[in-house]
Amino acid sequence: MQEQVNEKRDTDIIWYYCNRDVFKSIVTNHELWLSDITKSNDANEIKSSLQYAKQSFNSKLKKTFQCEDNAVIEKVLNIYNDRIKKTDILCYWFAMCFSKTGNNLIHWRTYGDNGKGFSIGFRYNALKELIKEQCCDGKRNIVIDNVEYVMPL
């Protein structure tokens, strides 16, 4: 089942909504810029970033100390979580958000300059490979993931 999903994803287009100036910059400079996650208007982006930070730290902790003792790891993670609450760990997190739909009224209003901007389509797998080639130097963690929005009842 997972392979079928991945095969379908090869042809999927993801969309980036932007105003005229950002579009011109992307086309002229051949660059996509990430935004400071703390400036996001989307609480789910911040929540997801914290979750990835914890998962990344947990994974590196296990590899670094080669420790399988969950009690020790849990204690260190608790200390880490307390520090997250006291510091601004997100000041080092950046994001760029895409949509699965290229013509969404809410996105046009919010990100596409109230309908006067652009919706740029990118091939998902091509963009993912380019990001891995350009950005994965071992010093940074790059996460490409899908965020599902659930409307509160």
List the helices and strands and how they pair.
Elements lengths: L1 H8 L3 E6 L1 H10 L5 E2 L6 H23 L4 H17 L7 E2 L9 H6 L7 E6 H12 L18
Antiparallel strand pairs: 1-4, 2-3
Compose a concise summary of this entry:
By secondary structure, the protein is mainly alpha-helical. It is built from six helices and four strands. Helices cover 50% and strands 10% of the residues.
Protein described:
The protein is mainly alpha-helical. It contains six helices and four strands; from the N terminus they run H-E-H-E-H-H-E-H-E-H. The protein has helices at 2-9, 20-29, 43-65, 70-86, 105-110, 124-135, and strands spanning 13-18, 35-36, 94-95, 118-123. The strands form two sheets. The chain has a two-stranded antiparallel sheet. It has a two-stranded antiparallel sheet with strand order 2-3. The model is unreliable at 1-10 (pLDDT under 50).
Head-to-tail CA distance between termini: 30 Å
Which outline best applies? elongated
- Helix-residue proportion: 40-55%
Radius of gyration: 18 Å
Q: Largest beta sheet, briefly?
A: 2 strands, antiparallel
**Backbone structural class:** mainly alpha
Mean pLDDT: 75
List low-pLDDT spans: 1-10
Tally of helical segments: 6
